[in-house]
């Protein structure tokens, strides 16, 4: 399927919100790059802090009418000095190549590395997730995935059962299995994500321990750890479904939340969960909670 790629130059601190706006307008995937390393726009006249700009790129299906989306962005107060944007038509193979060029091994916490399957492993003695995200979300480059991986890295997951709600590429479920979990269940509304998760699990030798499901078929079970990196809206709508997966002494980790959405998400879970202080990275939030006793 060919794609339209919309690339916007945004102030670094607003980049997550711009990415959120692109997703809210139908982007299938959003990536972030430092504008200094990837200059494609002329610096605005008189603008001395160009290096603080981030290139936010949204990938849209080819049939998308981009004009209303661009008009919406132009109205936003983030672009009071003018919206700098560029659209390109992309074939699947170009998108894949773009990912491949921009995706390098990254370390999370003390033990965990995410390594693109086509690159060399920097530290063979580490816990290495070999990953090829395909069209599914989840390479570790997004702050929400990074926050969840960092949390998983700090846990003793030996023999634990983990539910990865919104599994995308399977990165969190596979990371948990490689860190010692005995069983992981990935759930996603996107069939491509389930395929990518299974392929990545094979690549990492943990396919037998990972089951994947569409929500319509999701199993009934209690998990020691539930990670849900989806957006604040679905986290609130699915509060009872997600809560039901958490065992009595289990833990819940949620991300995909913006700072201004913390209170609403916590309120949806407050009856049954006690929250630790929020962890924040580049405007994105990870919430950790334990079931109330
Ligand atoms: C932000 S990505 C997270 C992927 C991966 N877990 C990670 O941490 O990088 C969110 C994923 O949740 C899925 N998703 C969105 N809404 C969902 C829902 N209501 N139920 C299940 N999955 C959902 C999307 O298809 C997407 O793959």
Précis, in short:
The chain is of the alpha/beta class and about 290 residues long. It is built from nine helices and 15 strands.
Write down the CATH class of the largest domain: Alpha Beta
Number of domains: 2
Tell me the helix content.
25-40%
Task: Please outline the major beta sheet.
Answer: 8 strands, mixed
Q: Helix count, per DSSP?
A: 9
What order do the helices and strands follow? Answer: EHEEHEHEEEHEHEHEEHHEHEEE
Average pLDDT figure? 87
Poorly predicted regions are: 43-51
The strand count comes to: 15
CATH superfamily of the largest domain: Vaccinia Virus protein VP39
What ligand species are in this complex? S-adenosylmethionine
Q: For the terminal residues, how far apart are their CA atoms?
A: 50 Å
Could you tell me the CATH topology label of the largest domain: Rossmann fold
Basic shape: globular
Q: What structural class do you assign from the helix and strand content?
A: alpha/beta
Walk me through what this model shows.
With 293 residues, this protein is of the alpha/beta class. It folds into two domains: 3-96, Alpha-Beta Plaits (2-Layer Sandwich), CATH 3.30.70.120; 103-291, Rossmann fold (3-Layer(aba) Sandwich), CATH 3.40.50.150. It is built from nine helices and 15 strands. Strand 5 (106-108) and strand 6 (112-116) form a beta hairpin. Helix 4 (143-153) runs parallel beside helix 5. The longest helix is centred in the C-terminal third of the chain and has 13 residues, at 191-203. The radius of gyration is 19 Å and the shape is globular. The model is unreliable at 43-51 (pLDDT under 50). Bound molecules: S-adenosylmethionine. Methylates ribosomal protein L11. Its EC number is 2.1.1.-. Its main location: cytoplasm. S-adenosyl-L-methionine binds at residues 145, 166, 188, 229.
């Amino acid at each position: 399927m060919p794609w339209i790629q919309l690339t916007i130059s945004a102030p670094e601190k607003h980049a997550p919100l711009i990415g959120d706006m692109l997703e809210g307008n139908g982007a299938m995937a959003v990536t972030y790059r430092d504008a200094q390393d990837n200059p494609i726009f002329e610096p605005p006249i008189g603008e001395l802090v160009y290096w603080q700009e981030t290139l936010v790129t949204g990938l849209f299906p080819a049939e998308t009418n981009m004009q209303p989306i661009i008009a919406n962005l132009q109205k936003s107060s983030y672009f009071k000095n003018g919206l700098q944007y560029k659209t390109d038509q992309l074939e699947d193979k170009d998108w894949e190549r773009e990912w491949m060029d921009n995706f390098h091994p990254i370390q999370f916490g003390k033990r965990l590395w995410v390594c693109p399957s086509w690159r060399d492993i920097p530290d063979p003695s580490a816990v290495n997730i070999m990953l090829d995200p395909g069209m599914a979300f989840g390479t570790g480059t997004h702050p929400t995935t990074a926050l969840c991986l960092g949390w998983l890295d700090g846990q003793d997951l030996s023999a634990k059962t983990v539910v990865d709600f919104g599994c995308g590429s399977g990165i969190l479920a596979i990371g948990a299995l490689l860190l010692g979990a005995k069983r992981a269940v990935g759930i996603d509304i996107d069939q491509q994500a389930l395929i990518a998760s299974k392929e990545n699990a094979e690549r990492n030798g943990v396919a037998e321990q990972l089951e994947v499901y569409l929500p319509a078929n999701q199993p009934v079970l209690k998990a020691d750890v539930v990670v849900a990196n989806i957006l604040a809206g679905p986290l609130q709508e699915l509060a009872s479904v997600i809560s039901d997966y958490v065992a009595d002494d289990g833990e819940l980790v949620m991300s995909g939340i913006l700072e201004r959405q913390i209170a609403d998400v916590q309120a949806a879970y407050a009856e049954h969960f006690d929250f630790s202080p929020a962890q924040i990275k580049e405007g994105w939030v990870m919430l950790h909670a334990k079931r109330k006793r």
